[in-house]
Amino acid sequence: MSDVATLEEAVWEALAQVPDPEIPAVSVVDMGMIEAVAVTESRASVIVLPTFTGCPAIAVIESDVRDAVAAVPGIQDVEVQTTFTPPWTTARITNEGRNKLREFGLAPPTGTGPVLIDSIGLPRFAVCPFCGSKNTYNENPFGPTPCRALYYCKDCSNPFEQFKPI
């Protein structure tokens, strides 16, 4: 394996340790927010794909990514760019990320159909991350961020957040 390939692998490993600032249980890699990594000699370039254009954590994500990559031995220069092309979708969340979200108490998008949508674009029910029940309902289409909604499980009586299907 070439030195550049080894460095690129080390950069990806460092990025896998960068937590999402809003959901620290998952990394930016778990969430599919790293569009590309390129390493040439001692320079690394990372393209970040935020989950939505109005994300208030973009500057924090860029800084955390830059710091993590700069700490990789052999990397002397780091460039971090943000792009919205292609648009981020919930399909980018890795299987490991979905499991971490569930363990954190957030219902991840299932990625399987059919997704039943009501009149405001939300799933009619979400699978409860605590007990696995589908006996849930949407309490509020507006969660703590634009990409999440609030649901309630009628079986285990827990409130939880569900990622909106985007």
What this model shows, in words?
- It is a single chain.
- With 166 residues, the protein is α/β, with parallel strands linked by helices.
- The protein has 2 domains: 3-82, Fe-S cluster assembly (FSCA) (GMP Synthetase, Chain A, domain 3), CATH 3.30.300.130; 105-163, no CATH class.
- 31% of the residues are buried.
- It has helices at residues 3-15, 58-70, 95-104; strands spanning 34-40, 43-48, 77-82, 106-107, 136-140, 148-153, 159-163.
- The longest helix is centred in the first third of the chain and has 13 residues, at 3-15.
- The strands form 2 sheets. A 4-stranded mixed sheet has the order 4-7-6-5. A 3-stranded mixed sheet has the order 1-2-3, covered by helices on one side.
- It contains 3 helices and 7 strands.
- The termini are far apart.
- The model is unreliable at 113-119 (pLDDT under 50).
- Strand 6 (148-153) and strand 7 form a beta hairpin.
